[in-house]
């Protein structure tokens, strides 16, 4: 017999650290689907199955995590968590999300105290850490260590709004660059330290965060600061 599906249907109805983290992750790697039968689905995708399992647990779901078919053989294996829920679809619509949101994404009106949780969720989806211990420049005799933290999105207004929120948490620099697939705000060492402090400041961060990204940023900051002593 089929296993009855479980889900906290009101998950996106009330602000909480876990709700806002999942909202941030959805903004990065989620989608809303309305099929021909007018059934409504919410889908999360990731190359990190562990992250989808954490999301599934916190939203009270027992839906199966599936492997997505690769479009190209060289690509990493991708996983998806697809949940049918009219309540979720309506709540996410109320928060400003739409189908095909990659270029139309706008930052929801999130309570300020929950902004760090949203940023951490978005970072786990569409954030990246770049650290090079010996980057060579033509204008310098010695190589230089470079640390950059960045986010990506097809929506420039979304990133600009997010950037304004980051300034309230001492992320004061950075530059916004146009890339082939969208836009990319990039932050150097000092701002990366502020981002780390912002995203991982609570106990909630240990439960709802992607360990490999957290570790990579933590180790990069530690190594760079040791090199500058």
Automatic annotation (TrEMBL):
<dbReference type="InterPro" id="IPR004860">
    <property type="entry name" value="LAGLIDADG_dom"/>
</dbReference>
<dbReference type="Pfam" id="PF14528">
    <property type="entry name" value="LAGLIDADG_3"/>
</dbReference>
<protein>
    <recommendedName>
        <fullName>DOD-type homing endonuclease domain-containing protein</fullName>
    </recommendedName>
</protein>
<dbReference type="InterPro" id="IPR027434">
    <property type="entry name" value="Homing_endonucl"/>
</dbReference>
<dbReference type="InterPro" id="IPR004042">
    <property type="entry name" value="Intein_endonuc_central"/>
</dbReference>
<feature type="domain" description="DOD-type homing endonuclease">
    <location>
        <begin position="22"/>
        <end position="155"/>
    </location>
</feature>
<dbReference type="GO" id="GO:0004519">
    <property type="term" value="F:endonuclease activity"/>
</dbReference>
């Amino acid at each position: 017999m089929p296993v009855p599906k479980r889900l906290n249907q009101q998950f996106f109805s009330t602000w909480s650290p876990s709700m806002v983290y999942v909202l941030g992750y959805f903004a990065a790697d989620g989608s809303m689907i309305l099929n021909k039968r007018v059934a409504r689905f919410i889908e999360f995708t990731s190359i990190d199955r562990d992250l989808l399992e954490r999301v599934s647990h916190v939203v009270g779901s027992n839906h199966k995590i599936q492997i997505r078919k690769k479009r190209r053989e060289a690509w990493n294996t991708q996983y998806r968590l697809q949940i049918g829920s009219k309540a979720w679809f309506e709540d996410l619509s109320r928060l400003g999300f739409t189908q095909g949101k990659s270029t139309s994404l706008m930052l929801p009106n999130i309570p300020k105290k929950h902004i760090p949780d949203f940023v951490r969720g978005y970072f786990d989806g569409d954030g990246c850490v770049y650290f090079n211990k010996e980057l060579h420049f033509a204008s310098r005799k010695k190589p230089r260590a470079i640390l950059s933290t960045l986010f990506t999105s097809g929506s420039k207004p979304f990133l600009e709004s997010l950037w304004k929120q980051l300034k309230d948490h001492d992320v004061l620099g950075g530059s916004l660059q146009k890339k082939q697939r969208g836009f990319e705000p990039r932050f150097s060492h000092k701002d990366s330290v502020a981002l780390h402090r912002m995203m991982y400041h609570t106990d909630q961060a240990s439960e709802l965060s992607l360990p490999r990204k957290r570790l990579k940023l933590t180790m990069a900051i530690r190594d760079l600061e040791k090199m500058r002593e």
